[in-house]
Amino acid sequence: xxxxxxxxxxxxxxxEEAFTTQLGCRxxxxxxxxxxxxxxxxxxxxxxxxxxxxxxxxVLSMSVSVAVKAAATMLMDAELNDVNDDVMDAVGxxxxxxxxxxxxxxxxxSLNITLPNVLYGENCRLHFPQNSHPIMIPFKCEWxxxxxQIGFTFPGGAK
Length: 159
Hints:
The protein is of the alpha+beta class and 159 residues long. It has helices spanning 5-22, 64-75, 85-105; strands at 28-29, 33-34, 44-51, 55-62, 112-113, 117-120, 135-141, 144-153. The radius of gyration is 15 Å and the shape is globular.
């Protein structure tokens, strides 16, 4: 089983671009690996579904510190210090920005993306399509840890 990097690299680029451009925060990729279970890697996760030539799920999972600092930066609210509705909304918007940027780079694949959902809590269980082999791509930044968790399948074998 291989993951098609043509689908993954635009998501990574979208994340790097969103953090650098929108949030003024450089992120550093720490590696790549297969997920051992379907749990979110961090407590705050923005989730978007993908359909079209590929079907799957993209999760942007963040530590509380990253989620709060990203929201505070977006909202220009230095008073934010814990996860609240504003932070959850900001994580959803960041996830939308990341996946929207990736979708633009994947236009030739005719993909559709859902509106983001945001989960908050330890060990949240994620859903990926059956027969997908989700990967995790951990990152770090000055605010803490974050990760992409991505799982795709290709209906009918079409890529």
